[in-house]
Amino acid sequence: MSDPNRNGQAYGFQAMTPIQPGMEDDLRAHLEGMHAEGSPFAKLARTHMARFVIVPDFYNDRSWGQKEEHLDLQYLIFTSNLDGDIDSYLDELCDVVAPDAQEIWGRCVGCPADASGTALKKYLKHNQIDCGFFYAAYGDATVGKVQAALAQREKVIAFASRTQGLDPAELQQAFVAEFGGK
Questions:
Q1: Domain boundaries in the chain?
Q2: pLDDT digits over 47-73, tens only?
C-alpha cells in the first residue's frame, strides 16, 4: 500500500492539536505576528510550504440530512510539504522552531511543558493525521531544485528584457555570453 503522505520524494505532514480553552486569541495573535516577522519555517531548507489554521468548529450543512456536530475545543491544524522523510524533518523543526514552538503548541492540550526536541516531535507525531491524498506540485523536485529553476527563470526574463531589439547575430552572441553554448 502506498503512503498517503508521500508524492515522489515529497512528504505531506498534517497535525491537528486541540487548543487549550482561553488560549485561542493569544495563539492567533502569535501566528499572525510570525507572518509579519517572517516565518521560522523559512529557516528549514526542506520546507516547500507550511501553514497553520485555527478551526473553531465544524461547518454543519444539514441539507444533507446529517446530524449536527460540534467540536468540544478549537483546533490548530499544522501542515507542511517537505523534502524527504518526516522523522529527520521533525528533528530539524523541533530544533529550529523551538523558540516559537512553545508559543504555538505550548497553548495546545497535551503539549509537553518544554515544547522542543524529542518530546515535541513525539507530540506532533501523536497528533499526525494522514493526508489521505497528497499532491505535491513538484513531487520529484527538492526545494533547492525549485529555487534554482526560479532563479534561472528570472535570469532568462532579465536577459530577454535586456536584449530586445538586437539583431539575430547580436542576440546569439549575447545569449552565448550569458548562458554558454556549443
A1: 6-126, 143-179
A2: 988 999 999 887 767 777 777 788 899
